[in-house]
């Protein structure tokens, strides 16, 4: 009798563990922290003059234009930021749905309940999310950082410019309605793809014209897609039983 109870308990525990680790497959997850962070070098590539005077997140500017072509002409930095983050979001949601069978709900799902940075939810603490926005079956925290690498350095206050090959870090966490962490992954990928050549500068004065934002955008999305595919590969490897 004891042996049978032990076997039954083992089966139940295995079922619970299996469910906990792959429960989000086939489900919808609510974004509680979803951020794309691009280093200043991206904006320097497309900026026609001093980068610092053109730093802007692009979201408010984009709202005042009927066509993104108008925004590209008037403010290429804002245009690039807006298009890059929009396209990265679209690619992320499509990849999660098609390759992992996970639906990422609209970013505004928890709007008014948790902290937001513009259009993006930015609440990093699961306890605050559950306290202020309960009721969701699953929550997702997703952070992308694309930062500098391969930039020439000269004397103090002088940049020689150089090939910009960004390194991409993606951190993914999925937790349930009780705050239990179900999945956590972090990948860091260096690339050989040159997104662009940064301009030489002295102080805040840059030498040279900005690149076509659409060219930089296309290369940036390729770099991001490669990192995203690496994340997906790690996810599938750790959940291979669920994706047979």
UniProtKB/TrEMBL annotation:
Which range is the signal sequence, renumbered to this chain? 1-20
Q: Which UniProt keywords apply?
A: Signal
- For whether the record's keyword set contains Signal, the answer is yes
Q: Which domain of life is it from?
A: Bacteria
Q: What is this protein called?
A: DUF3313 domain-containing protein
